[in-house]
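Bumping with the actual sequence this time:
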Amino acid sequence: MIMKKLYLLFLGFALMFAACDKGGSNKKNAENPQDKGAVETVVDSLKLQKQKIDSLTSNGMMLHRDIYPLGKVKTITFTVHSVQVGTDTLNYINLRKDCGNEYYYSWENAEILYGECDAFVKAIDEIKGNLNRAVEHEEEYFYVTKDDIALVATNSGKKWDIRLSVDTYKSNSSVTLSAEELDALRGLVLEGKRKIDELSK
């Protein structure tokens, strides 16, 4: 009798957890529509290709790279890179910051992948849209790409401080941006995306 009661109790818990899990799965699916999943798949795919190129570069294989200039924001230079690996081609926006004598290396490089361009522009627009809003407490907007490029806007209650970092883990890889320079950044990302569309035809 005791074993039977324990079995029924265990069965009841199992059914309860199964129902909760199903509900959680449905909620997760509602919060993550297919279009978001498609964007993440594209970004992950491009990131894997970039990792493949990094691996080939370190293994002494010949690559061909076409570099198309876009412009600069402060000491960060923007270009579009088109890299050929055999029959495959990878196109992305490259950011290169001149670090001078700030550290043991003279520059930092990082990439914005094609699938990240729209999200990057959206992050810029959200920050720009809040610059004139009164702030009563400390706030922060923070966007990071797959390759650790970070766009950060902070306000301690007085004014907004906007920074673009080529590497979130290195303090000397960042620059401070004005509202006008934030607009310039937006334009360069969109121009880079258009160039990649042109190269992909």
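The tokens above came from a reply further down the thread. The CA atoms of residues 48 and 54 lie 10 Å apart.
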